[in-house]
Design a protein that fits this description.
Layout lengths: L1 H18 L9 E6 L7 H14 L1 H4 L1 E6 L4 H9 L5 E5 H9 L13 E17 L14 E3 L6 H12 L9 E2 L7 H6 L5 E5 L5 H9 L2 E3 L4 H10 L4 E5 L11 E13 L4 H12 L2 H4 L11 H4 L10 H10 L8
Parallel strand pairs: 1-2, 1-3, 5-6, 5-7
Antiparallel strand pairs: 3-10, 4-7, 4-8, 4-10, 9-10
Helix pairs in contact: 1-2, 2-10, 10-13
């Protein structure tokens, strides 16, 4: 898996360099998509979108380039400051930025933020050592767990779930702090019983830990999932297919955020329209460009306005095609 990820990293580094070559046409519109680090999923996602857009640039005159950034927060700030035209961000962070909450409380509301389309799910994932006998979330009581670095989205989600269930950190034997790079070793050597992760699937980190020792992907009770989704507009129901990881043949039920392509309302309607069109009308090709995209379905990629409004240009495309967002079951 590691070698495959390296191939994708090299491929999209090439795409980024190629896409960044300036075009000489004065009429051409240049847009840049902010992503995240080159080893993550957002960078190849941005590269894939640009690849689709640039295939039609002779017709629409739009040139798209991808930029590696610090991630969702950096992208939202750069869009606000007009340093980027587009960015890929987590749905929870878009909600906070649009409403001026949590980490964006000092900056205040950014009511110009708009959604173009939805990408992959980023399920909240719990991996337990098989001999720890943890199959459901409630089995974590009295166990030693790693819930991610302080300040991380995965830790915040875990804390929110704990609070919703009326629990607290004393519910667990210990919340262990380890380096993210050491989490697989800590689990397989018995220093922790379970770890928390969030990201698109298939995922290299989860592939590593499930291949290193016998593990179980932990499901969350349906009632808990329903409540998290009902009380947080940025969460969606999610599932990790059985057979994706070594030793885990059954589907894992959970919830999570979505990766979204966003922009400012100031982005031209034609640019938003052509960007969305390029992805949807080349979706079969798009799905082959990274393993995480292989499970994408058009109905679940249609933008909705539960977190921030849909960009007018994107909405025009959806309306013309009679497309409406689907809700994960």
């Amino acid at each position: 898996m590691g070698s495959i990820r390296n191939i994708y990293t090299i491929l999209f580094a090439f795409v980024a360099v190629f896409s960044a070559v300036p075009h000489t046409s004065a009429a051409e519109k240049n847009v840049t998509i902010g992503t995240a680090g080159v080893t993550g999923v957002y960078y190849p996602a941005g590269g894939s979108i640009c690849r689709m857009v640039n295939r039609g640039r002779k017709e629409h005159g739009i040139h798209c380039a991808v930029e590696s950034t610090g991630g969702s927060i950096a992208n939202l700030e750069s869009i606000h400051n007009k340093e980027l035209e587009l960015g890929i961000v987590q749905s929870d962070l878009l909600y906070y930025a649009y409403n001026g909450k949590e980490i964006f409380s000092d900056a205040g509301m950014d009511r110009k933020l708009r959604v173009l389309l939805s990408l992959h799910f980023e399920p909240f994932t719990i991996v337990a050592r098989k001999n720890a006998k943890i199959n459901m979330f409630d089995d974590l009581k009295g166990k030693r767990i790693y819930i991610g670095p302080a300040g991380s989205g995965m830790r915040a989600t875990m804390e929110e779930l704990i609070t919703q269930k009326g629990l607290n950190k004393k519910t667990f034997a210990n919340i262990v702090d380890v380096k993210s790079s050491d989490q697989t070793k800590a689990l397989c050597e018995g220093k922790i019983d379970a770890l928390v992760y969030a990201g698109g699937h298939p995922n290299g980190a989860i592939q590593q830990v499930t291949s290193s020792c016998a593990t179980t992907l932990v499901s969350i009770a349906k009632a808990d999932i329903e409540k998290m989704v009902a009380t947080h507009p940025f969460y969606v129901k999610a599932a990790i297919p059985g057979g994706m990881y070594n030793g885990n043949t059954q589907e894992t039920r959970t919830f999570g955020v979505r990766a979204l392509l966003v922009a400012s309302a100031d982005l031209g309607n034609d640019v938003a329209y052509e960007t969305v069109k390029a992805v949807f009308e080349n979706l079969d090709n798009f799905k082959t460009l990274h393993p995480v995209f292989s499970t994408l379905e058009a109905d679940y990629m249609v933008a909705n306005d539960t977190i921030a409004p849909i960009h007018t240009g994107a909405e025009k495309y959806y309306r013309e095609k009679g497309m409406s967002p689907a809700i994960p079951k």
